[in-house]
User: Fold this.
Amino acid sequence: MPIHDWSTVDPNLYHHFHQAWTIAIINALNGGLLPKGYSALAEQHAPALVPDVLTLQSSYSESRQGPIGGAVVTATRPQARHVLRAQRSSMSARANRITIRHSLGRIVCVIEIVSPGNKHSQRALRAFVEKSVEFLSQGVNLLIVDLFPPTPRDPQGIHKVIGDEIDEAPFDFDPAKPLTLAAYVAGVMEEAFVQPVAVGDTLPDMPAYLDEDHYVPVPLEATYLATWATCPEDMRVVVESALAPGGVSCRNS
Assistant:
């Protein structure tokens, strides 16, 4: 199913889709994609979440595990696209993020689906970026899904803003594919696997890293499709009537 143009519809509609899509991804991960001992949970955004996460992390002193079991976990990394070296607002606060935890405790990966509220002001974007960088600095891997076009606050997309906080390395932004999927591997040298997409594209699977060497593929397209199928018919008509950049209709998606 092609990605819809969510930037032209009422943010409440995307908020509904965002919440339902979050649960669909969680169900897919817990339904057999994650290896034994790992669980995906929905957690509400909150200003104090990062400190809470860090406190929880420090309370676990598990030694590093050996190879992770499970048929879908792979140690083969996708090709690195970028290496880093060293009312809407209230909707953003109510939105869920996905955490992947080991033994329901230590957080190993966070999956963030960007909402309009995350980018509607400089303050909101700064808070999102600071949390993202904080996760990586504490060894928590990160997957960001941003289906909204760049704003004046992130003119080359949200990945460039996050990257500049770490290294300010050059990034080849493609205006023809302005939406961003980015998987980050936390470590001494953070790596970002960036997949630019556009309205009308099919979503690829993206890696959610459990450690520096192992990840599970997150089925973005399959879960997007399943979520879309459960949306109210009136909502689907409104969203499908939106025009993508260039006047391409999403109606028959």
The helical segments are 11-33, 49-58, 88-94, 122-137, 158-166, 220-229, 233-240. DSSP finds seven helices and eleven strands in the chain.
